[in-house]
Amino acid sequence: MDYRRLGASGLKVPALSFGAGTFGGSGPLFGAWGNSDAQEARRLLDICLEAGVNLFDTADVYSNGASEEVLGAAIKGRRDAVLISTKTSLPMGDGPADYGSSRSRLIKAVEDALRRLGTDYIDLLQLHAFDAGTPIEEVLSTLDDLVRAGKLRYVGVSNFSGWQVMKSLGLAKQHGYPRYAAHQVYYSLLGRDYEWELMPLGLDQGVGALVWSPLGWGRLTGKIRRGQPLPEMSRLHDTASFGPPVEDQHLFKVVEALDAVAEETGKTVPQIAINWLLQRPTVSSVIIGARNEEQLRQNLGAVGWALTPEQMKKLDTASEVTAPYPYFPYRRQEGFARLNPPTM
């Protein structure tokens, strides 16, 4: 397994990490992802650790805390061998103190996560969404206190816009608070919006990307083809409305390019889609999920080899879309591009 620095921090993370959204799954979204119990989760962790995958990502909102509980049971007795990443800020209930990133909410959320995970520290805590109702200074000072108390090692964010990340980094520098080392983002061959602003920001500021849904919300599994109905067992029947939308013509164009590369390489479509991400700037780790051992072993096959420049270009071309203003002039017009040479 290849290990990479998490942004500009000193933390080394594996190129592939494991997403525990399938653990303890319940409800219309997480129940469709999977519902691994502690015994099955422990087996999946065994396979991950054998392959060098030691970073496990979860969130309090995943099945209302059940994912953290199952992960905690699965790591029992081997806490020192793993890195735990979890997230908070999204609603865990209907009460005014059940959501957001206020000082009181963050402190309670961290204590609850530590209890569910059965540990006394979290390696990486990420804010799951920006809380516009709480001053950024309050958020950062609280995270600073939690780091100083030894309950958090590193901090990051997820699903933030560029200005939200940048303002937070500026205030962290001004006040000496911990800076965000990671940004957990949606990025795939079907969704390259991350490249327009957040990737250049990550390059400039040393913020590493942890990629969620690298298979385009389950569309790049190799089971979807032009002119064929959605497979009967596809989870997209239940979950498509929860994820980023994709136009059919764009989807099929990308799938057909993946099929062509798969024929050249002998690799599977998911392996190629993940390998493409691993060669992109700022990507520290790609989060893979699996409902069973077979899926996990297939995804682990995405490392240990590399797509050629020609194959990367083929996938780049098939997946490219026109960037919105103000980004498209810098991509397409010579004068703008001369002032801001492409970084990828």
Task: Quickly give the structural class.
Answer: alpha/beta
State the helical fraction.
Answer: 40-55%
| Main sheet: strands, sense, barrel | 8 strands, parallel, barrel
Kindly provide the name of the CATH class: Alpha Beta
Shape: globular
| Structural domains: how many | 1
Structure overview:
There is one protein chain. Helices cover 41% and strands 14% of the residues. It has an eight-stranded parallel barrel with strand order 3-4-5-6-7-8-9-10, surrounded by five helices. A two-stranded antiparallel sheet has the order 1-2. A hairpin with a 6-residue loop joins strand 1 and strand 2. Helix 2 crosses helix 3, helix 2 packs parallel to helix 11 and helix 3 packs across helix 4.
Quick gist of this model?
With 344 residues, the chain is α/β, with parallel strands linked by helices.
Describe the secondary structure blueprint for this structure:
Blueprint lengths: L2 E3 L6 E3 L1 E4 L7 H7 L4 H13 L4 E3 L8 H9 L8 E6 L14 H15 L4 E6 L8 H13 L3 E7 L3 H14 L6 E5 L11 H8 L2 E5 L23 H4 L8 H18 L3 H10 L4 E6 L4 H8 L8 H11 L8 H5 L1 H6 L5
Parallel strand pairs: 3-4, 3-10, 4-5, 5-6, 6-7, 7-8, 8-9, 9-10
Antiparallel strand pairs: 1-2
Helix pairs in contact: 2-3, 2-11, 3-4, 9-12
Primary descriptors:
344 residues; TIM Barrel; eight-stranded parallel barrel; alpha/beta; single chain; 14% strand
